[in-house]
Amino acid sequence: MMTDVPRKHRVLVVDDDASVLVSLALLLRQSGFEVLTCEDPDRALAILAAHSMDLVLQDMNFSPQTSGEEGLALLARIKEQHPGLPVLLMTAWGSIALAVKGVKVGAADFFTKPWHNAQLVELVNTTLELAVPATAGRLDRQALDAQLDLRGIIGQHPEILKVLSTLGRVARTRAPVLILGESGTGKELIADAIHRNSPRAGKPLVKINMGAITSSLFESEMFGHVKGAFTDARSDRTGHVASAHEGTLFLDEIGELNRADQVKLLRVLQDHSYRPVGASRSEQADIRVVSATNRELAEAVAAGDFREDLFYRLNLITIRLPPLRERRSDIPLIANHLVATLAGDYGLGEVTLAPGAMQWLASQSWPGNIRQLRQTVERTLLLAGKRVLEQQDFLDAEPGEDAPAHTDVRVDGLTLEQVERLMIDRMLEQHQGNISRVAKALGLSRAALYRRLDKHGLGDAGDEGSGGDEA
Ligand SMILES: Nc1ncnc2c1ncn2[C@@H]1O[C@H](COP(=O)(O)OP(=O)(O)OP(=O)(O)O)[C@@H](O)[C@H]1O
Ligand SMILES: [Mg+2]
After folding, report:
1. Has residue 155 got a pLDDT over 90?
2. Do residue 295 and residue 353 come from a single domain?
3. Which residues, at least 6 apart from 438, have a Cβ–Cβ distance to it below 8 Å?
4. pLDDT exceeds 70 at position 463
């Protein structure tokens, strides 16, 4: 709650180039900030010691021949003396690696010179907003529900409450959010909620499975093409980026994107401009990017599989979803919710879980997380056909290793396509929908499996319309 009169935010700009200081000061003052400027690091530290500032914009190079060490040193001193003060780095195009280094040691973000005025102001606003300390006191689900529409997201484990509180703070900004978590932990559900609780809620949420895009079609799918751009381009096509204009672009399975396509994505994230294939000029899109992956992206960066600059473009905010086994206290709530909604969907009236069944559910390891729990409940509900589900009903409904009939596919009279579909279907069932395991069992990459799931219409059990659906 705001009790005192809101004051203007104070920004300190540090750069040895006087013309940069003049134009940034002008821009920021016009945008309603109070601005102080100075040309060298020592002076900057003196100002910070004497005035209370809300944000620092600092250059990385303070003399022509340096490698940016002075910039990093200044950043380190600021973080040491004012740990909570957000710092944005300014850097030339050629030295993004340096800025990335700066983000690792505590800078909030970086931007490149020359900058785009509106984007810079937005970055400053977002950074200030996120710097506000998390709501003091204990988090509770009711308080969160009062402020946010968290429909369908069940849970009140402290780890989930943290996730939801972060979601609430970032939803209203345009900051890119990276959602990490094992398969089936609810990453897509969180992405949906970010969009729903954002000022962009009335605009499209475009979902693209990066693992399912064929590399040769990447630019055409993402950026669109003009008629005649290539042999098959018989008419203009709007790309996903343009479709998401003023809305949210959800880049699912971002960890599956190959390095060549990573570069193409970087540009649009960097300056929100893109060029449709065959078009003569670039277009601007106002998009908010949310991405998700079940890979540990920082490790992919370390292994050289994922571009570091792209990683830092995606993860201004990282939301980590805990696996279900680390939030077991939520299992009863989620299980009850699933039984009630699934029974409703199937028109089965009121169905409940016996205490023994609940204990059994709460003690399982759930490698496929909530998706697996959902499938288990759904299967048992249908097979048992009872009003009260007992532990034994769950045991009876388990596919189990002693059921070879399940994988023993009869293929006489089927086309190759049909056999493929059948195999994938069986494997999905056997591995409780765990995509990584199914891919492994079938000897396919995740990307290749996604393409086949798309082709056969075997996506997630009908709970969403995906953006990547026109292929
Ligand atoms: N907190 C929750 N409460 C209720 N249902 C949930 C919750 N989290 C996830 N689910 C359900 O679990 C299923 C899997 O969720 P989702 O598709 O968001 O997972 P994911 O993390 O994107 O998985 P993957 O990495 O395999 O794509 C969905 O049916 C979703 O509705
Ligand atoms: Mg998903």
Report:
1. yes
2. no
3. 424, 427, 428, 431, 449
4. no
User: Do both 14 and 121 map to the same domain?
Assistant: yes
SS3 367: coil
What local confidence, expressed as pLDDT, does residue 468 receive? 38
Residue 462 lies in a domain: no
At residue 1, the pLDDT reads 47
Q: Is residue 14 located within the same domain as residue 109?
A: yes
131, 240, 361, 395, 429 from 372: Cα distances, Å: 37, 30, 11, 15, 10
CATH of the domain at 340: 1.10.8.60
Which has the higher per-residue pLDDT, 67 or 395? 395
pLDDT score of 145 more than 60: yes
Count other Cβ atoms within 10 Å, centred on residue 2.
5
Q: Among 77, 112, 131, which residue terminates a domain?
A: 131
pLDDT at 460: 58
376 within ligand 1 shell (Cβ under 6 A): no
Same domain, 294 and 210: yes
Does pLDDT of 249 surpass 50?
Answer: yes
Ligand 2 centre and the CA of 17: distance in Å? 46
Q: Which amino acid is at 450?
A: Y
Residue nearest to atom 23 of ligand 1 (CA): 184
**Among the residues of 51-202, which ranges form H helices?**
69-81, 96-104, 117-131, 141-147, 158-171, 187-196
Q: What is the mean pLDDT of the chain?
A: 87
Q: Is the CB of 371 under 6 A from ligand 1?
A: yes
What does the chain come to in residues?
471
331 lines ligand 1 (CB under 6 A): no
Q: Which domain holds residue 151?
A: 141-322
pLDDT-derived band at 406 (thresholds 50, 70, 90) equals: very low
**If we measure between CA atoms, which residue out of 25, 18, 186 comes closest to residue 120?**
25
Domain C-terminal end among 78, 100, 131: 131
